[in-house]
Amino acid sequence: MTEETDLDALAERIEKAGAALTGNANSVGNAQININAGGIGVYIAATCCLMTLVAVVVASVFVAIGMSDLNQQTRELRQADMVQQAYINAGYTANPKEEEKQ
Length: 102
Description:
This protein is mainly α. The protein has a domain at 57-93. Helix content is 81%, strand content 0%. The chain contains 3 helices and no strands. The protein is elongated and about 120 Å long.
């Protein structure tokens, strides 16, 4: 018996939900979305964007200066390495005057 009453209650709920849905389908509504973009908010956003752009430009200038310094240091280290390598290679090459003496 409880199954029948449960099924009857469920059927009534389904009928009510269906009636509520079909009742809403006949109604006509207008939806409007208004976007008010203007005033102080736009000026604040534009100012923040400009400040960010200026910060990026200034940071890129400092990075470029730093990179040029690093490139100069790298060139100097390579030159010093080449001098040391030439010194080492000179020690391994035989002196032609010594070869004649032997």
